Amino acid sequence: MSAGANIYEQHLDKTPANHQPLSPLSFLERSARTYPDKESVVHGDRRYTWGETFIRAKRLASALTKRGITKGDTVAVMLSNTPEMFECHFGVPVTGAVLNALNYRLDADNIAFILNHAEAKLLITDMEFSSTVKAALTQIGRDDITIIDVDDALAEVRGEKLGEKDYEAFLLDGDEDYPWTLPDDEWDAISLNYTSGTTGNPKGVVYHHRGAYLNAISNVVGWNMGHHPRHLWTLPMFHCNGWCFPWTLAANAGTSLCLRRVNAANIYKAIAEEKATHFCGAPIVLNFVINATKAEIKPFDHKVEVMVAAAPPPASTLENMQKAGFNVTHVYGLTETYGPAVQCAWHPEWDDLSIEQQTLKKGRQGVPYHVLQGLEIMNSETMELVPADGETMGETMFKGNIVMKGYLKNPDATDEAFRGGWFHSGDLGVMQPDLYIKLKDRSKDIIISGGENISSIEVEDTLNKHPAVFSVAVVAKSDDKWGETPCAFVELKPGSEDTVTEAEMIQFCRDHLAHYKCPRNVVFTELPKTSTGKIQKFKLREVAEDL
User: 536 lies in which domain range?
Assistant: First the structure.
């Protein structure tokens, strides 16, 4: 016994019997053992059980290993929300390799950059995206990347085959008795996700097994999911690994209802016919639901839980969802925090509030996820906490096990992001008296007019209350007198194109906002969006400057 050691340090050491690395790979093994005949994945006529999914994941791991894939290698996948994508979340990392799920909406230039930067050794790609992949492979000039095709019968476009064989044939190369072993170290990388790269090349965000395990569990607890939910994949699985929900659904033996095309008709169809109980997405997915036509809506008689993130959903959207019978949980996070890391935790007594008051509560980002150690609003320069007055703005900071390992091969960006011992999100917000945070803007999106800060989110929330508005984005426009003024881009609901004018929209804002916060320009247009539904404001800023 060393000097100063207490009684709890005497022969109470870590051993294989009492300490194992945390990894979400253990969830698949448990569900296959406990619920082998329960449905795991549904995709059109294809239906798999947990026992079958486990075997397919082992075959995938074995086939990858036979191709020389080993610890620290990158396996890229360009896949839609299909069973193959779900299986890759397990079959790739169990080999020790790192899963890089590619955003299939990116152009060939970005795909080429990512494949090279990640040093991908093998690529599994859906044939729908073969033209983009083919162009990317031509750019990088490498012939050492093994290509495996996925030929999905439900794809709207059937492109050409690029690989030596398809996925199903590749699985036959593998052994279903492949040993299912966890990593030796839970700090090992499990996945690689690239940021959007709107201001330069995208950055590679690296996740570890511990963080993926913890956030998967936190999804279950925070959303009160219980066992065997039927989860509809309205969120792309490539986005933050589907907010860790592939691993969550293995933890609670849920069913993945795959969805290649996200629209109102398909969402209602899955709810009515497949009894979907949960789905996630950006506010645009909620807009699909509340603006559905009578022909698209199908009645259902069970409760449907909805998790929304990305940009804060407009108050009008939350209110309309609630009226339509959907219970919305608002979460917030970034690629760097494994997806959702903050939740607007609900208090039962709030059920007695009016729907308008409930909407105001739900519009906040909220409090830390169960497994997030630190969430604060701080002065980004002094690293001091701002007062919890709901007024003083600062930068949202994170700390804990669901913060990324760092940016791949980018030490300067990693050091800057972790400056002062916290992850700097770049999101501006306030801390409210009840210690719930509310975002005000991205630091780059705040509008400074005549020395006054204007939150683009506040202006957007106001415009979203107009009955003709489907979606809106507000950006700064240079102004000789004021420095900057708000410029609004409005996407109108179908049939409303000839019913409103720019002057009427500006007056609507003046009726509800301080006049200095109101847009001087309103442009009616379809809003440019990313594949995950985020509005691409950088493109709108360029348009605003040309007005």
Answer: 447-546
pLDDT given at position 318 = 78
Please give the share of the chain, as a percent, with pLDDT higher than 70.
Answer: 95
Q: Assess whether 288 and 141 both reside in one domain.
A: no
Q: CA 194 to CA 333: how far, in whole Å?
A: 15
542 has a pLDDT exceeding 90? no
- Report residue 55: phi and psi, to 5°: -65, -40
Q: What is the token pair recorded at 113?
A: 């950059």
| Rounded distance between C-alpha atoms, residue 536 and residue 506, angstroms | 22
- What is the rounded distance in angstroms from the CA atom of residue 101 to the CA atom of residue 120? 11
Span 513-530, pLDDT tens digits: 878 789 999 999 999 987
What's the chain's Rg over C-alpha atoms? 24
DSSP one-letter code for 152: -
Residues 370 and 466 in one domain: no
At CB < 8 A and 24+ separation, what contacts does 494-499 make?
494/470, 496/468, 497/524, 499/468
Task: Identify whether 307 is part of a domain.
Answer: yes
Q: Which of the four pLDDT bands, split at 50, 70 and 90, describes residue 531?
A: low
Q: Tokens 């053992």 label which residue?
A: 33
* Location of structure tokens 């789905």: 279
Sequence-distant (6+) residues with CB within 8 A of 447 are 453, 454, 455, 456, 474, 475, 476, 484, 485, 486
Residue 200: the pLDDT is 62
**Would you call 342 helix, strand, or coil by DSSP?**
strand
Cα–Cα distance list, 152 to 26, 43, 353 (Å): 28, 10, 47
CB 113 within 8 A of CB 181: no
Mean pLDDT calculated for residue range 228-250: 97
Q: Which of 387, 299, 369, 385 is nearest to 331 (CA)?
A: 369
Q: What percent of the chain has pLDDT over 90?
A: 74
Cα four-point dihedral sign 105, 106, 107, 108 = negative
- For the full predicted model, state whether its pTM sits above 0.70: yes
Whether residues 169 and 197 share a domain: the answer is yes
Helices (H), 276-423: 283-290, 315-323, 355-362, 411-417
